[in-house]
Amino acid sequence: MSTAKYIFVTGGVTSSLGKGIIAASLAKLLQARGFKVTIQKLDPYLNIDPGTLNPYEHGECYVTNDGAETDLDLGHYERFLNVSTSQANNVTTGRIYNNVITKERKGEYLGKTVQVIPHITDEIKRNIFLLGETGEYDFIITEIGGCVGDIESLPFIEAVRQVKWDLGPNNAIVIHLTLLPYLNAAKELKTKPTQHSVKELLEAGIQPDILVCRSEKPIPMEIRKKLALFCNVHLNSVIEAMDADTIYDVPILMRKEKLDERVLAKLKTHSKEDPDLEQWKTFLGKLKNPVSDVRIGLVGKYVSLPDAYKSIAEAFVHAGAQNECNVQLKWISSEDISKDSVETVLKGLDGVLVAPGFGERGLEGKIEAIRYVRENKIPFFGICLGMQCSVVEFSRNVLHLDASSTELNPKTKHPVIDMMEEQKKITMKGGTMRLGAFNCKIKKGSKAHAAYGESTIQERHRHRYEFNNKYLEQIEEAGLKAVGTNPDSGLVEIVELKDHPWFVGVQYHPELKSTVQNPHPLFVKFVEASLEHKKATNR
Ligand code: GLN
Q: Residue with the nearest Cα to atom 3 of ligand 1?
């Protein structure tokens, strides 16, 4: 049995209360006291992973170093903690059932009837303990997706009940996140929905140890007392979680409410030191007191749901703070860009990022946007599909080839972006892309080399198509240089345009590795280049 202590975070009343941010903030506070912490998200849906989910529905798919396609909350965990996560940090109902059914087919249950309890719940518990058993962590924070009372989350809640019972109160606790709605007519925060959701948990056999209450207003003492009395929690374990200006304020707010102290006391863990939040506060200071600002256009297909590009938006927050600059993002649907509209849509922007994506919709708009920024020497950053579009644009408008990506046109005469050989035989969609961290060797003298300050880097991938090396010589000769390549496969990873202030396209996803502590160097340099462009154009 592991020596790690387990903290479960459940949610009630409504979804979208920000369990991920509360979990990440608590983890940050414990980490800032010198503890080793990791976070896990259990998602109660039947997909094996979120890789096949539409970003409109579920937000971005976050890819880990080991190539797991995971929930976007893992992005918050990495951004807050500066520690990598892996497949073990995100488990869905689909994966649990898949494991159990695979075992059943192998005959591992030896003639028994396979049931939700104990087989599914045992498999959930096995996954909960996996991280603790590595011996690497003092605390495992496990967030249960969805709301208590949902049919889907019942087996997870039952597994939490059993873990709490198995390990005892000093080794496992439950933090329940709820909402206190403010009724304008009554001028009061209401506790009833919280009481009901705690009852729901109690029905499942779980007494929450700490209540974290989301609220638009400060929670008065009499309301705290009422919650404590009706929900059987200590008065000092009713924690107020007011709406914050930025998610990065939440660790500070949780510290003020002493969430970390309550957790340590309940888990009978002593910490001599107060959390060291100096670095975090310096970051917040810069974030909140910018000395300049830039406007950057984010051209993508899923712009109506900003969560679809969560990591890119957050990478700009980190890079902006590093440059003491307020980055205003203008979200632009690539379908709104055409030859006629491009100038109007992109006018006044100091830099343009063309986002990752899938499918042909909006691709021509992305290509048009890239032509405009290339010709007008506006800083450009292309990520994954954005990079691929920059190669197509260059081939069409500089080399005058009738070129395309085979994703856009499978019959194109010049497939400058083509499906990777090993991808051509694959018919299954889930988990079959080029996924996870790969090495990239960068040429000295390039902008990427100047940004990273080193020649070999690892970045994360999630794609099926690639730069077609048959066109490499021709494209490089005309001025679009492959300055980063995979040393093992020779696949192109980074392209840069000669004679342009900052035009960088990357086949990988740099946004996934940007954290508060380590803002991503390419985002930092792109913001810097955009600031310079703004100064040069006297805006
Ligand atoms: N659709 C492209 C591919 O599969 C790009 C993927 C992406 O932007 N993540 O290669």
A: 463
